[in-house]
Amino acid sequence: MGHDSTEHESMKRGPMKRILHLLGLAVAIAAFAYFVLYAYRALAGQDLSQLLQPRVMLAGALLTGLYALLVPLTAVAWSWLLRGLGQPAAFAVTGPILATTQMGKYLPGNVAHHLGRVVVARGHGLDTGRTVLSMAYETLLVLVACAHVSALTFLWSPPAALAQWPLAQYRAPLVVAISGGALAIMLAAPRIAGMITRLRAGQGAPAAAAVRGHPGWFTSLGCYLIYSLNFALVGVGLWAVAKSLSPDPVGAASLVLLVGAFASSWILGFLAPGAPAGLGIREAVLSLWLGSTFGATVAVALIVMLRIATTLGDLLNFLWGSAALARGRRLRLQ
């Protein structure tokens, strides 16, 4: 009877998930169409040869390199989480796994890279339950770090769309409230991670029913800081590109804005269930945040450069990760 009930609930969830994915895909397509129209209007009659200027290409290379660092840094945090959950895993294992499976995020549904990581990790001897639970903690901490960074940076240097927001006048209380909320979520992490684990299991990843625990507050804080650093690194790269593109001076306030703009666009792209790698969602959000600050032409060039850099960065990680996995496979067969 219980089995029939579970199967019936699973059958009901299936169509709902497909509907959500289709809705997410529709939103992504609409957002991408908006950005294409925005870019067309901004670039009409403009000389795009500036994108090929040495200083712009050098800044783009810096952005690509900084973005590519996100996978190794995230792999270090993943190793810490696994160790905290009782599953020792060196960077030599987590790094290549994460680098190769990240490419799955370019498939619609925002699921393939999660499921792929579980499968590859299992093939390298990592406990499936602990792997899934560590990924749940990772998702939670990344989302909290992203929301925290977005809120703090936008309060410090709000985009024009939020500059007249009445609550922006109460920065100090808001900073305290937002930071308190982030701490509260981290205190509730075990319960929330369990919910995320069950959601992942519903998407095809094996459940971690037999695994319970917390990686430790010191480990959680260290991972949280790494995830926050990831957003800051991309912001620095975007700032370098903006300085190379903009005819006007680009100061430190713009750096804060760019960190917040990237973080907010990332979280919205992540939450869109049908957008592969946040395509369309992130571009539309960034054009809204950055257009009034840098001008439409510079903003579009900056967004295009970001998409190129992230794709190249993911490709570089995939190449070294695949080579590392192949080398490890050969060593095991010897």
Global outline:
globular
Low-confidence stretches: 5-12, 203-212
Taken together, the total number of domains comes to: 1
What is the N-to-C order of secondary-structure elements (H for helix, E for strand)? HHHHHHHHHHHHH
Report how far the terminal alpha carbons are from each other: 50 Å
How would you state the average pLDDT, rounded? Answer: 78
| Helix/strand class | mainly alpha
Outline the structure in words:
The chain has 334 residues and is mostly helical. It has one domain (2-333). It contains 13 helices and no strands. The longest helix is centred in the first third of the chain and has 42 residues, at 2-43.
In short:
With 334 residues, this protein is mostly helical. 78% of the residues lie in helices and 0% in strands.
Key structural traits:
334 residues; mainly alpha; 13 helices
Structural topology:
Elements: H1 2-43, H2 54-68, H3 70-84, H4 91-101, H5 112-123, H6 128-156, H7 160-163, H8 171-187, H9 189-202, H10 217-245, H11 252-271, H12 281-294, H13 296-333
Helix pairs in contact: 1-12, 2-10, 2-13, 3-4, 3-6, 3-10, 4-5, 4-13, 5-6, 6-8, 6-9, 6-10, 6-11, 10-11, 10-13, 11-12, 12-13
